[in-house]
Amino acid sequence: MANPSTAAHAPLEGSARHWGTLALSAAVFMNVLDTSIANVSLPAIAGDLGVSTNQGTWVITSFAVANAIAVPLTGWLSQRFGQVRLFMASVALFVLASWLCGLAPNMTMLIAFRILQGFVAGPMIPLSQALLLSSYPKALAGLAMAMWSMTTLVAPVTGPLLGGWITDNMTWPWIFYINVPVGILSVLVTWRIFRNRETPTRSLPIDTIGLSLLVIWVAAMQIMLDIGKEHDWFQSPVVLGCAVVAVVGFAFFLVWELTDKHPVVDLSLFRLRNFWAGTLAISVGYGLFFGNVVLLPLWLQQYMGYTATSAGMVMAPVGLLAIVLSPVVGKTMHKVDPRHYATFAFLVFGLVLWMRSNFNTQVDFWTIMIPTLIQGIGMAFFFIPLITLTLSGLPPERVPAASGLSNFVRITAGAVGTSVSTTFWERRATLHHAQLVENLTPGSGPAGQLLQGLQSAGLSAEQALSQMDRLVNQQAFMLAANDVFYASAILFLALIPLVWLARPQRSVADAGDAAAGAH
Q1: Staple partner for 317: which of 324, 373, 487, 502, CB 3.0–4.6 Å?
Q2: Is 502 within the bounds of a domain?
């Protein structure tokens, strides 16, 4: 049977296009919001359900694992059931799963419903990209991606702020219940506008072995990343076992998918230079970005005395300039080589992280906020051009598979970036702590003066030493954070040559090439 093609449908016009964009964006916003909204609610959830906070982290991990597994299946599922039907089913099931999460009577049921929620959420992001591109004419493909990316930029910032407010002023189940009205409206509007724009389908056999291998190695890797830090990584037999399962499972998965006639994940996309170069650049860049986004509020709350709300306020401005500049980037994508924009984004990220690497324990709120505000510029020039490069030159029927696979690698890189950055931070802090203590003896000038001052203020000798250790610890973790920020800045600059390995298409023959937004 002929391949499905979104090119069979003319672009939407007028209010239909506006409402369609809004419905697709609302679904994506709801999806991305759920990756971060539970973070600040974990203590409340764990306490209410009678488990430890460490056990509560499975609320986040279970969603991430299921979501990572489902995302690369989008290409196969969309060919089997059609893009519009699959998107609507995904959103409707997401609403149902969200409602069940709120009703969960214990942690076991909550984790089960979060797994369901993460799995059905998988196709939403890549399909929203594909449907959005089919709704806009070629010349406005960049604008379409700009509108889409704005929701993915705002949601991660909104999540912790909204989750904290709901937890403080209502009850934690409402972080899931708020998805219900948004999801229902998205389904209704999507059905009204896109029901006659379904893509052709074809019967494809289910690659059960490939799917099973995908589930095994992704789950093992995610569990390894989640428990590694608290179990001292490869000193633990459990972590080591997960690593072995992940590596062996991944190897078998690669061999099977590359030789099967109907693979569940289309790895042949990596033969295309634009796809692998774009995917690698956006994934490594996102891993660095996400690792630092997690690290900054951790440092502020644990060692700088910031509350969750004030740390959230420091992070909130990251989306401001991104929202303002994203439409500008989208409208000019057809005039500017996307590699120039991506290079500029990496330079901005490098500058931001270099600025943060100069922080000290006396840094004030506004000094911390300035790099966060500048970071929004980099975000606007980061996602759209790199998605453009990644999808450049693909025929329409391969866009969902390519978008799904690229998003899968990006999500995985985000998990790796979080684990690596926090582990590197703690290990560097241990090293700095040891070095600082070597230079502090009770008889040394500064240490002696500090101890004497603390004791004259009414502290006992033990209390004075404890206070000094706290100050040394604060200094050690600040220096370690500086190390992470500086190393990340260098890595962002090192990614620039990778962007220039891609070759954006100079002629747009169809809607798939329009996804590139480059002529």
Answers
A1: 373
A2: yes
Same domain, 228 and 153: no
Contact (Cβ atoms closer than 8 angstroms) between residue 103 and residue 173: yes
Specify if 203 maps to a domain: no
Same domain, 257 and 308: no
Segments forming the whole domain that contains residue 220? 208-263
Domain assignment present for residue 3? The answer is: no
Q: Are both 252 and 344 inside the same structural domain?
A: no
Outline where 35-82 has alpha helix (H).
Answer: 42-49, 53-56, 58-70, 74-81
Residues 340 and 489 in one domain: yes
Q: What is the value of pTM for the model shown?
A: 0.77
- Going residue by residue through the chain, which has 519 residues, state the pLDDT in tens, using 9 for 90 and above: 333 344 456 776 677 777 877 888 888 888 888 776 776 676 778 778 877 655 666 777 678 778 878 887 777 788 888 888 898 999 999 999 999 998 988 888 988 999 899 889 988 888 887 888 777 777 777 777 777 777 776 776 677 677 777 777 788 888 889 889 989 998 898 888 887 777 777 777 778 898 889 889 988 887 887 778 778 788 889 899 999 999 999 999 999 988 888 787 888 889 889 999 999 999 999 989 888 877 887 788 778 887 766 777 777 777 778 878 888 887 888 788 889 999 999 999 999 999 999 998 888 888 998 998 899 899 889 888 898 888 888 887 787 788 878 888 888 888 788 778 888 888 899 899 888 877 666 555 666 666 666 666 666 666 766 777 788 888 899 999 999 999 999 999 999 999 999 887 643 333 333 333 332
Whether residue 352 is found in the same domain as residue 434: yes
In a domain, 200, yes or no: no
59: exposed, middle or buried (C-beta count within 10 Å: 0-12, 13-18, 19+)?
buried
Residue 388 sits in the same domain as residue 511: yes
Q: What are phi and psi of 458, to 5 degrees?
A: 110, 0
Q: Which residues contact 442 (CB under 8 A, 6 or more apart)?
A: 448, 451
Q: Give yes or no: residues 278 and 360 share one domain.
A: yes
Whole-angstrom Cα distance, residue 386 to residue 379?
Answer: 11
CATH number, residue 161: 1.20.1250.20
Query: What is the distance between the alpha carbons of residues 109 and 58, in angstroms, rounded to a whole number?
Result: 12
Q: Are residues 302 and 436 in the same domain?
A: yes
3-state secondary structure of 305: coil
